[in-house]
Amino acid sequence: MNGAQSLIRTLVDADVEVCFANPGTSEMHFVAALDTVPEMRGVLALFEGVVTGAADGYARIAGKPAATLLHLGPGLGNGLANLHNARRANTPIVNVVGDHATYHKQYDAPLESDIESIASSLEGWVRRSEHTKDVGADAAAAVAAAQDAPGRVATLILPADASWGEGGETCAPIPPRVPQAVDATTVKDVAAVFGTGEPVALLIGGDACREEGLRAASRIAAATGAKAFVETFPSRLERGEGLPTIERLGYLAEQVTYQLDGIKHIVIAGTKAPVSFFAYPGKPSDLVPEGAQVHTLASVGQDVTRALNEVADLVAADTEPELQQASRPAVPSGPLTPQNWVDVIGATLPDNAIIADEANTSGLMLPAATAGAPRHDVLTLTGGAIGYGMPVATGAAVAAPERPVLNLQSDGSALYTISALWTQARENLNVTTVLLNNRAYAILRLELQRVGAQGGPKANELLDLSRPDMDFVKIAEGMGVPATRATTAEELAEQLQRAFAEPGPHLIDAVVPPLL
Amino acid sequence: MNGAQSLIRTLVDADVEVCFANPGTSEMHFVAALDTVPEMRGVLALFEGVVTGAADGYARIAGKPAATLLHLGPGLGNGLANLHNARRANTPIVNVVGDHATYHKQYDAPLESDIESIASSLEGWVRRSEHTKDVGADAAAAVAAAQDAPGRVATLILPADASWGEGGETCAPIPPRVPQAVDATTVKDVAAVFGTGEPVALLIGGDACREEGLRAASRIAAATGAKAFVETFPSRLERGEGLPTIERLGYLAEQVTYQLDGIKHIVIAGTKAPVSFFAYPGKPSDLVPEGAQVHTLASVGQDVTRALNEVADLVAADTEPELQQASRPAVPSGPLTPQNWVDVIGATLPDNAIIADEANTSGLMLPAATAGAPRHDVLTLTGGAIGYGMPVATGAAVAAPERPVLNLQSDGSALYTISALWTQARENLNVTTVLLNNRAYAILRLELQRVGAQGGPKANELLDLSRPDMDFVKIAEGMGVPATRATTAEELAEQLQRAFAEPGPHLIDAVVPPLL
Q1: Which PANTHER family does UniProt cross-reference here (chains A, B) (predicted)?
Q2: Model pTM?
């Protein structure tokens, strides 16, 4: 057994059964070893940002890590933006980066690169597996490190000779560290905050955005009058009919200030205290209202759901959560607008869908329009590195082939990782992409104003995507994905229903004017 | 004057007059400042790998740096692969990476990232410009560092508040370090090597691949019987009618072993001793033949052209260089093959063209077919990070709008940075892309065999691009670039001539079967 075979066998034994890959020469023994371990599925992507984003989307839905396969420093670099998003989502990923053979590094061949420096920027787990006999044990350690609560990117650097050498040994799975329980005193102290009579906001994140945490938060809010919020960019938010609808904290500092107006206590559960996404001249970065106290119930990585349940049992023993009734908007009519397209989504969303949301400015009114739709998951842009939607949708569809995946994708963000469409076609994934084509970096038009910069024609030119207009129908078809164009609400509804009904990927180029 | 204005003004004063940009919120004051410095041209790209590759191609042709504008760690990550290639090309680039405001970093907002670690992997120059009043001086230092011989990537990290703050001061250009002259003793000692009567190889690289260095190398070879070679992946190689034709060292170790067979002395001029691109089990990494001596005439960063001229004056005082006669293949006929498409290029290449060569396996026979074509420059994949061709062609066309740019682009490498086509359309650049569509990662099929890995069906699946086939005509048209498909040599020739005759970008999807 060579090192690569021991690596893949160890991964499979630890229940890592998908590898998103964009390999090169130094990874050829890993690629060849896939044929010796039939349980491992290899999924090819044409760009590493698709590989890493797909691994993120996969794990958010599967609840366990996928592996990646990347080619030296440049491959890791290309994958870095979506690994950044995964880091912010606390997504477990086993990131395998091939490198030159150990004895070859001294020659400074063209692809020689400082993989450790690049990987270290992810603040996760990094190990170089220098010896064939250690590769299995290092792989098992990587899987555990990826899954140690709350989850992280574990990067295993695999020199080519460690991969091709004989003498590989598989290693049994290492149990990851489970989330640490919150101590009883903290639970009691935080419960008391809800009894002060002063206005309280409860801000939940991480695993608390799943059904059990939402129910506990809803009970607390209903019983105590606290305002409950979900963190701005949850990794995975369960919502829709039969679940509590809890408002997300806004992206814009102005929104958050409005949402938290008058609050005297903020209870943090599974996330961090609210801060501004960017700095703006003369505006605060810290969004905790002046004079408000922050109380941490559960830090990121602690067992937030259990802690919320314990608080709920103290302050809301007899209170049921407030559950969302079924309610869909009617299909609107006429030309698509930033206001009406979200109603089309609300009207047509199928049961048990997964939404990979990179609608950005176009999606401002999406939450209201879909609150009463059938139960669904929403995956969001946790790290702010655009180009996440298409890959994450791809990985989510690999994780849940039976579920419809809806990728709401703004045009400006689409081009970073557009080749995800090809992987969707290749794997016949049930992903429907609604490409929100407003022909602008609309969010930057807004941000240019918000930072107080005085832009002229040259500045505006750098935020404009209309010269030339992109034809996403042709681009999608060029990558093997059937595509149509919708300019009216009726067309969008009809095309969505057709796309959901037919297996495999589809793209709808939805011509929606910019909000601004 | 704010910091951003002082930065751009300082860049322009130092003759940096193009900025390839993919900005975000933290760069909005830089974007706005473009309107106050009319001499700076902003060129928008939809992905950072296009930004950095374009900056590389620009500098290789313009002989001076462009600036980039990137958005925090994820933006730098996306640009890293082509910065790696630029590093290997010793290309001067002024890499501007926006960051959060200094006071905002403590809040660990979603885009907070370890920019320094990522930038340090490039082994260039990195500085964070913390104070508005220092931004101009730091920019001048960055331009100088980028241009200090032999050239490098200089990364200036620009916090948003340093950018928007008032009190910016421009800084006069700082003269960069020119290449160090080779001392007379070394010149004399190396000249003596050519007189030993033993077989000598002269391996030139860097600036020696331009006309003057090629002429000196040709004289030395003609007078002494030494075999002259150009390094495997030169940054910019001048060739064609009227210039010496000097063979490039091969990519495959087996080729190099053949080329250097029997050599007893290798004289290195402006490059490094030959090493294998990758390690292969049981094969040497060091490609210097056993028993051969290596003599360094000029290291990378020394004045290699002058040193070659001095050696030539000692050993070849009365010898003229051997200059290539005009000679073009006839346009072949029939279906395209890996053998005949290069003849179409040789037959149709216009005067004074720039070839951005990422043909990979498809281009094996290109050098012979174009040796006697009109004089042209060839830009090559210096660092092995694929996805370089389209961006480098884009930047080269910005640098030399009057010259025809021909991008020979393999399909497997195209999808990394495909949105370069959109920038070509937007800027109406004279780039003709020949997309060599062999529907495979053909080089990896070869490498799978060469590393001795036994691949089965799953491995072959990961090297196959034919499921689904990509339609590059549609993809290009979707990005605003007119496109046609060629399946015969006649069609390719006719479409090439049409593309060269018409201003603006074109793409030809050339259906060429794989070599293997």
Answers
A1: ACETOLACTATE SYNTHASE LARGE SUBUNIT ILVX-RELATED, THIAMINE PYROPHOSPHATE ENZYMES
A2: 0.98
